[in-house]
TrEMBL record:
Species of the source: Aurantiacibacter sediminis
Descriptive protein name: HPr kinase/phosphatase C-terminal domain-containing protein
Membrane-spanning residues: none
Any GO MF annotation of the entry: kinase activity
Domain of life: Bacteria
Any coiled-coil regions, as ranges: none
Residue span(s) of domain HPr kinase/phosphorylase C-terminal: 5-77
């Protein structure tokens, strides 16, 4: 899946979507600074495993994250089951009643739209994971 970024926090994948230039890589970088691990930047490989959608690093850009105005940074990567989709949307609702739902390879996944232009974005994304994210199967 192209034009997405993905990180894993505490074993739970956060798929970051949005328009080009919306800040997907910047959010991923900020989440890495908060303890997340990179799955993929500007693309991920998705597969169904044991009833979950698992994101893995794409072979072409594995281990690389773009830092706008700086260049590419090499970082370790991991794979993770997708627990939530964070959609960067400048028209995000201020106080939604809950998470939306998106289909990913035919499986429903919680989706939260977040306003991208705020310094609190990584905190909001992490809170969305805790409040709305699915718990990964451990079986």
């Amino acid at each position: 899946m192209a034009n997405v970024s993905c990180v894993s926090m505490r074993g739970r994948g956060m798929l970051i979507t949005g328009e080009p230039g919306s800040g997907k890589s910047s959010l991923a970088l900020a989440l890495l600074d908060r303890g997340a691990e990179l799955v993929g930047d500007d693309g991920v490989a998705l597969a169904e495993q044991d009833g979950q959608i698992v994101a893995s690093p794409p072979p072409i850009t594995e281990g690389l994250i773009e830092i706008r105005n700086v260049g590419l940074l090499e970082v370790p990567t991991t794979s993770a089951p997708i627990s939530i989709i964070i959609n960067l949307n400048p028209d995000a609702e201020r106080m939604p009643l809950g998470a939306n739902e998106a289909l990913l390879l035919g499986h429903p996944v919680p989706q939260v739209d977040l306003y991208p232009d705020t310094p609190a974005l990584p905190l909001r994304a992490e809170a969305a994971l805790e409040i709305h994210g699915q718990i990964a199967n451990t079986a």
